Amino acid sequence: MAHDHTHGFGTKAIHAGQAPDPSTGAIMTPIYQTSTYVQQSPGKIIGEYDYSRAANPTRTAIEANLAALEGAKHGLCYSSGVAATGVVLHTLSAGDNVLLCDDVYGGTNRLFHRVFKQLGVETTLVDMTDLNKLEDAFKDNTRLVWVETPTNPTLKCIDIEGVAKIAHAKGARLAVDNTFATPYLQNPLALGADVVCHSTTKYIGGHSDAIGGALLTNDDELHRELKFIQLSEGAVPGIMECFLLLRSTKTLHIRMERHCANAKRVAGYLSEHGAVEKVIYPGLESHPQHEIAKKQMRDFGGMVTIYLKDGLDKARTMLERVHLFGLAESLGGVESLIEHPAIMTHASVPPEQREQLGISDGLVRLSVGIEDVEDLIEDLDQALA
């Protein structure tokens, strides 16, 4: 199907980037489990494929599908979310500065500060909920701004349009990690971002069975650069993962609707609970950036973060007592997950940075799944009793 912008999200999710297999009429894109392709004569390839690191028909289909969902001209898939992030960082050179929003996934923080630092790329952490702070943080050598919104795990919401204007005025590119919101809830390219990043492991995959990453862009030159790095570095997804992701995007819209509806109910329930000091959810009016979330998101997502009154002791009991919520890292699957960022997903973030961000011992992150919400509330109720 051609990229028909008149079609709605659900139609694109099911049809974009793929057509029935011309040789058999198979409605699902086949798994082209091949590493190489026979050529008609030296250098004369059949179609566009010569080697599966460069391109594979199953991967082409998921890349085109994700591009359509993000409203992008170009899509590229990678072996993981951090692999996709690393490719964007490879567009920088030693001596360049990058502004990173201060609250991000622990693995993103580690990649910037421990891997790319030794290659001479300098990172400055900025609280980007304050655009004045962002403006003040720019240096002559700033080439990239990296935003996650909502952030992981404190769910700060950052004004993408506002950041884009400042970044472009300063001659820097803007990359937005859209993993928590997904293309269904938020489209950063339409708000001025140059490139969008996803850990497709999370909501896009949605079934906790595949690891992957993606980059989406409208910039032809940037796409060429990213594709060259993809080819040269080879952090490409396996073909089975591409097939699984293609199966998953078909239900992304209906899954996200249920994630959002359930999370809203769970956030409301926890706000009233005596053991809970504070609930952070972009859909609550108490959220400091509720208005920004309302402006740039279609709904408020499936992630809820809470602070418990009795800190680590209460958190530990709660995490050990849940039945339906799986105690595990990751998020965005159909099943509900719960975790302790300070000990688990953000353990690689230096303690002083965690403290500054409020990633304390009493902070618990919930990925609200698509089960029956009454059962989830009952589970939390008994775990917090």
Fold and architecture overview:
- There is one protein chain.
- By secondary structure, the protein is of the alpha/beta class.
- The chain has a 7-stranded mixed beta sheet, with helices on both faces. A 5-stranded mixed beta sheet has the order 8-9-12-11-10.
- The chain is 37% helix and 15% strand.
- α1 (9-15) packs antiparallel against α2 (57-70), α3 (81-89) packs parallel to α4 and α12 crosses α14.
- It has 2 domains: 9-249, 3-Layer(aba) Sandwich (Aspartate Aminotransferase, domain 2); 253-384, Alpha-Beta Complex (Aspartate Aminotransferase, domain 1).
- It is built from 14 helices and 12 strands.
- The mean pLDDT is 96.
- The protein has helices at residues 9-15, 57-70, 81-89, 106-115, 131-137, 160-169, 182-185, 220-233, 239-249, 252-271, 290-296, 311-321, 351-357, 373-384; strands at residues 74-78, 97-101, 122-126, 142-148, 173-177, 195-199, 213-217, 276-280, 303-308, 326-327, 337-339, 363-367.
Question: Concise description?
Answer:
By secondary structure, this protein is α/β, with parallel strands linked by helices.
Strand portion, in percent? 15-25%
Provide a count of the helices: 14
Structural class, by secondary structure, is alpha/beta
Which sequence of strands runs across the widest sheet? Answer: 1-7-6-5-4-2-3
Radius of gyration, whole Å:
21 Å
User: Low-confidence spans: pLDDT under 50, at least 5 residues?
Assistant: none
CATH class (first level) name of the largest domain? Alpha Beta
In CATH, the architecture of the largest domain is: 3-Layer(aba) Sandwich
Task: Briefly note the CATH topology name of the largest domain.
Answer: Aspartate Aminotransferase, domain 2
- CATH superfamily assignment of the largest domain? Type I PLP-dependent aspartate aminotransferase-like (Major domain)
